[in-house]
Design brief:
42% of the residues lie in helices and 19% in strands. It has nine helices and 13 strands. The chain has helices spanning 29-39, 50-59, 74-87, 101-109, 122-143, 175-186, 194-200, 210-224, 254-263; strands at 20-24, 43-47, 64-68, 91-96, 114-117, 149-151, 154-157, 162-164, 170-171, 191-192, 234-237, 241-244, 249-250. Helix 6 packs across helix 8 (210-224) and helix 7 (194-200) packs across helix 8 (210-224).
Length: 264
């Protein structure tokens, strides 16, 4: 999918502007119910097919995608979510036709930010949409200008793609290792499955293999952990994937920070 119209890190949104929401859903009673509920507060457009959704994204960017699993065969919509996650971090909500935790897990592992039953009450649906848009706007503001991120004395610069250790030394990372660390820093404290890591990075893009993630993570641990065999930063979650434990800070005031360092 082309990336020109849907940047991974959109610019800071104007608080006076209504969010652009694209809904993939059938024009049935349930779809119309959700569309009507969201129209009052958001600029929302509804399409019924994946092809229509792709064409819309070619023309303009959006703040939020709502993907209704009932609109197409399940595998198509799940794969669509994975495809989008390869090139974009746009906020995604997945709606499923039954209150089945297995379906929700599958959607979240495909890269969705939230997943809920299609028949959920309208007040809760509206609240979830507003909450996700708020979090997405904060993330966009933090990362859109390629700010340096810090954790436990380390710094990672996405613009220059460099990692610096607490002693100020540059750490040599492969492209895959850098992409993984950048994904972890943006999702600190969250358990990320191997499939999610595949969709958040280019690791295994040519030939997606879950276990390729393990190889790259072991190599990354050898470069950022004091003891790679007893990792502190990058921990394995049994049957879940991996979690990056440090608190990550964003350099939102680089000029002030540089002035402070100069004075000291």
């Amino acid at each position: 999918m082309p990336t020109s119209s849907m940047s991974s890190f959109p610019a800071r949104p104007d608080p006076r502007r209504k969010a652009e929401v694209l809904l993939l859903s059938l024009a049935d009673r349930g779809g119309r119910r959700i569309l009507k509920a969201l129209q009052a507060e958001h600029q929302i457009r509804s399409v019924e097919t994946i092809e229509q959704l792709r064409q819309t994204l070619l023309i303009k960017g959006v703040d939020l995608l709502i993907l209704d699993r009932s609109a197409n065969p399940a595998d198509d919509v799940i794969q669509l979510c994975r495809d989008i996650r390869l090139t974009s971090s746009v906020a995604i909500i997945f709606m499923v036709g039954s209150d089945d935790p297995t379906l929700r897990i599958e959607a979240l592992e495909a890269g969705a930010d939230d997943c809920f039953w299609r028949r959920l009450g309208l007040p809760e649906i509206k609240a979830r949409v507003v909450s996700l848009l708020r979090r997405a706007a904060f993330g966009a503001a933090a990362f859109s200008t390629n700010r340096v991120l810090f954790f436990e004395g380390w710094s990672i610069d996405p613009h220059r793609r460099i990692l610096t250790d607490p002693a100020g030394r540059l750490v040599d990372l492969t492209a895959a290792e850098f992409d993984l660390l950048w994904a972890f820093c943006r999702n600190s404290g969250k358990t990320l499955s191997r499939q999610t890591l595949l969709t958040l990075t280019r690791v295994g893009a040519a030939r997606p293999v879950d276990r390729s993630i393990d190889v790259h993570i072991n190599r990354l641990r050898s470069k950022i952990e004091v003891d790679p065999h007893r990792p502190v930063f990058l921990r394995t979650v049994r049957l879940g994937g991996y979690i990056f434990t440090p608190a990550v800070e964003v350099d939102l005031l680089p000029e002030r920070n540089r002035a402070r360092k100069t004075r000291t």
